[in-house]
Write a structure and sequence with these properties.
The chain has 524 residues and is α/β, with parallel strands linked by helices. It has 16 helices and 22 strands. Strands 1-3-2-4-5 form a 5-stranded mixed sheet, with helices on both faces. A 4-stranded mixed sheet has the order 12-13-14-15. The chain has a 4-stranded mixed sheet with strand order 17-16-18-19, sandwiched between helices. One of its GO terms (biological process) is UDP-N-acetylglucosamine biosynthetic process.
């Protein structure tokens, strides 16, 4: 089976979001070979590793694979390079054996079984793309062939699989989708504690596997972190209660008004429905086509909305969130910059004794950056979630958001341990990096209507070119039109992206025309 996989026709690179490509033979082979890397990492860490089939906001005919490390973070940079070597080599099986020996000290494929820990496996998840069932089937067939233990979580969001992977390793028991839904509901109910009651009721159809009892974690008092001493994974939840045969629901004693959501016809629809809250889903009928956060941001002309009503928009795998409102054919958008600032103001109120930091993007509007600096420590990061996570860890309590709506929260265990239940609910939900959990916090605490600053006009253009890595100096053009901007090669597509910000739309239009001409001329 391993020798039948071939290298792609063109070189593929594991970027910040893993491998992504048009669904076809090259991608199928890349996914099989990346599965082998996941096995090596599982054996090296003696922990479960996550494997997600998704291409996030990409068109429906694309797909991809992303690996999740044992601690719920992205895989280390050296493993990204190993992925590149595996996928682009003519000899996949030989490289697999090479790294089994080099990293895991295992002499061959047949000797792997003796090195398995009973609690380690590959944790699988996928999004709602039509090609995802076939790709996950390929992964499962390969794991079965190699007799590698696995658990298939079916349709989950990417941030959810990050959480499930981390908590499975922290607790030593498989944490499943139902537990994740309960985690969202319990913490949401704490934020809404004056308006809701929480119930646990018997359900006979919660877990697919009746042979184990899943652990679900909530907070109790000021108990410290629990740590799985064997794997040294810190759990951010303090008390475990058995919920394998329980269902959680919230009785809305007062009317809780939640804004409608455009889920991009993706994973978010399933998660929102599983919450069983009163949330109206307004979206398209094809994944990421004329719907979702990316479409709303880039077009400014959503096709699915309620007039004069705030509405959230997710991307296909539910790790991005923005808000928008249409009124008289005019749109107002709260992008990641806006939401980061509004949430930062909330954190200042919820944690009055704590300094708050935030990380914004090189794409962030200068008006947003200057406003945020008035009440938060601000750092700027290159694009890519890994770059944001690296910078935000400098803060004891820090937010990060990209303008596209990727956003999450970092906090230290010292901050968590001295927090009360209400503060912990905020920490628990915002730290997931999940559009749904961010939505629940925003719906509970944020004033959407108040306009805090007026952003400068911006323009983003994607240009398909022969050589996306060719350097072009647009500095003189930017200076001429009093604009800020830069050119960046895409990490997932054969395009370069031109980003411009200026004092007027007229200047940006003139600047963009000259910049585009210079870029295309440089390709000749």
């Amino acid at each position: 089976m391993l020798e039948r996989t071939t290298k792609p026709l063109k070189e593929m690179k594991y970027g910040t979001s893993g491998f992504r490509d048009l669904f076809g033979l090259d991608l199928k082979n890349a996914i099989k070979r990346t599965t082998l890397v996941a096995i090596v990492r599982m054996l090296e860490t003696n922990s479960s590793i996550g494997l997600m089939i998704t291409a996030s906001h990409n068109p429906v005919n694309d797909n991809g694979i992303k690996l999740i490390d044992h601690d719920g973070e992205s895989i280390p940079t050296e493993y990204e390079e190993i992925c590149n070597e595996f996928v682009n080599s003519t000899k996949g099986e030989e490289i697999f054996v090479k790294y089994l020996l080099k990293i895991c000290k295992i002499p061959g494929i047949k000797q792997m079984k003796s090195h398995f820990n009973k609690n380690t496996r590959i944790l699988l998840g996928r999004d709602t793309r039509p090609s995802s069932p076939e790709l996950i089937h390929d992964v499962i067939e390969l794991l079965k062939y190699l007799e590698i233990p696995y658990y298939y979580h079916h349709i989950v969001s990417t941030p959810e699989l990050h959480y499930l992977t981390k908590e499975t390793n922290a607790t030593g028991k498989i944490i499943v989708h139902h537990n994740y839904i309960n985690f969202l509901l319990i913490n949401f109910s704490i934020l809404k504690n004056s308006k809701s009651k929480i119930y646990f009721k018997t359900s006979a159809s919660i877990n697919e596997d009746k042979n184990f009892c899943c652990t679900f974690c909530i907070n109790e008092g000021n108990r410290p972190f629990e740590i799985n001493e064997e794997k040294k994974i810190e759990s951010f939840n303090a008390k475990s209660i058995e919920l394998s045969n329980k269902d959680v629901s919230i009785e809305q004693t007062d009317k809780i008004i939640l804004h409608p959501v455009d889920t991009a016809y993706g994973v978010g629809s399933k998660v929102l429905k599983d919450l069983k809250l009163n949330i109206e889903i307004i979206t398209g009928d094809l994944l990421n086509f004329n719907c979702g956060s990316d479409y709303v941001l880039t077009s400014g002309k959503p096709k699915h909305f309620i007039e004069d009503t705030w509405q959230a928009a997710f991307d296909g795998d539910a790790d991005r969130i923005i808000y928008f409102k249409m009124k008289n054919d005019k749109i107002r958008i709260l992008d990641g910059d806006n939401l980061c600032i509004k949430l930062g103001m909330i954190l200042n109120k919820v944690f009055p004794e704590q300094k708050i930091g935030c990380v914004l993007s090189i794409y962030s509007n200068s008006k947003a950056i200057n406003f945020a600096k008035q009440f938060m420590q601000v750092e700027i990061a290159e694009t890519g979630v890994k770059n944001f996570i690296k910078k935000v860890k400098a803060f004891e309590l820090g937010l990060f958001f990209e303008p596209n709506g990727h956003g999450s929260l970092h906090y230290t265990k010292e901050v968590y341990n001295k927090s009360n239940d209400y503060q912990r609910a905020v920490l628990n939900l915002l730290s997931l990096g999940d559009a749904v959990s961010n939505y629940l916090v925003i719906e509970s605490l944020v004033d959407l209507e108040k306009e805090l600053y007026k952003p400068n006009p911006i323009k983003d253009i994607a240009l398909k070119v022969k050589d996306k890595n060719r350097k072009v100096d647009i500095g003189s053009i930017l200076k001429k039109y009093k604009c800020n901007g830069f050119i960046r090669a895409s990490g997932t597509e054969d395009v370069i992206r031109l980003h411009l910000e200026g004092e007027s739309t007229d200047n940006i239009e003139k600047c963009s025309i000259e910049c585009v001409n210079m870029i295309y001329n440089s390709q000749e």
